[in-house]
Amino acid sequence: MLQKQKFQNVITLKKALEVAEAGRFAIGSFSPRYTPMIAAVLQAGVQAKSPLIVQISHKELIRYGITPAEFGDEFYHQIGALNITVPVVLHLDHTKELPTIAEAIDAGFTSVMIDASEKPFDDNVKDSKEVVEYAHAKGVSVEAELGMIGTTDFVETDKDEELYTDPQEAAEFVRLTGVDALAVSCGTAHGVYNVKQPKIDYARLSAIRALTPVHLVLHGGSGVPSEMMQQAFRLPEGGVSKVNIATDLELALLAALGREERMSNAECQALSPERLALGRAAVTRTVIDKMESFVCSAGEASRFVL
């Protein structure tokens, strides 16, 4: 099967973020949410000559009616069919259950996220360490979360509750778990900002960066002003290296199709070729814009030695 085929440009999150942090740019982690939109995200990377991360969360898999195997199959099919050569990570976002993580790894995901952030610190450490041991044995990177990131649309998380990441706890968490990347809470939120406005606590981010050797991640990239985000990855001592972007892509797709309500994956697959092309073009344009003016990764694919 295609997901078992090795593509040299499909790399781990750890490898991707090492280059991004050294280059003082961030890599967008884009959730197409529908398998027909995976191609659109990949083509954006080619056109912008940018590294990228293609991701989907456990809740998105459920909400849109997709299995990790289906998502992985389509990803690897398009990597081959479109001759994608820019560096790409296939990432499983926010997931709380080891069976789903194992399923994704079997499907060829090169990075997974265990999100036990709503649990007490010791339980978060225990669950995250278990996933690290499992995934690292299979050559897969692991992201975890410490602190709680608020939400506005409840696709990724269950509660609109924030608990900012404590820098000292972050240092201890990383030491105990061995994670490759850490999602931190310092002011952004999942979804669209309607009432509450985004803000980033740069002092907290700097303190976390000073105490932790791993790469930092900001979730909730949709709707954050570009200058605010860029300051987060251009901190003098090194800042954020991965930024999650999902809602903006779906909004672009729905707007291009002239609809407001999200679809199931099956509904998206059933769209006419003309409608699919319209939607894909909108998603590609949105991703290119994010690469060029938001995470500043356009043109950075040449930094990678694959």
Overview of this protein structure:
The protein has 306 residues and is an alpha/beta fold. The protein has a single domain, classed as TIM Barrel. Helix content is 44%, strand content 15%. It contains twelve helices and ten strands. The strands form two sheets. The protein has an eight-stranded parallel beta barrel with strand order 1-2-3-4-5-7-9-10, surrounded by nine helices. A two-stranded parallel sheet has the order 6-8. Helix 2 (38-48) packs across helix 12, helix 7 packs parallel to helix 8 (202-211) and helix 10 (247-257) runs antiparallel to helix 12 (273-293). The longest helix is centred in the last third of the chain and has 21 residues, at 273-293. It is globular, with a radius of gyration of 18 Å. The chain starts with 12 loop residues before the first helix and ends in a 13-residue tail after the last helix. The model is unreliable at 150-161 and 190-196 (pLDDT under 50).
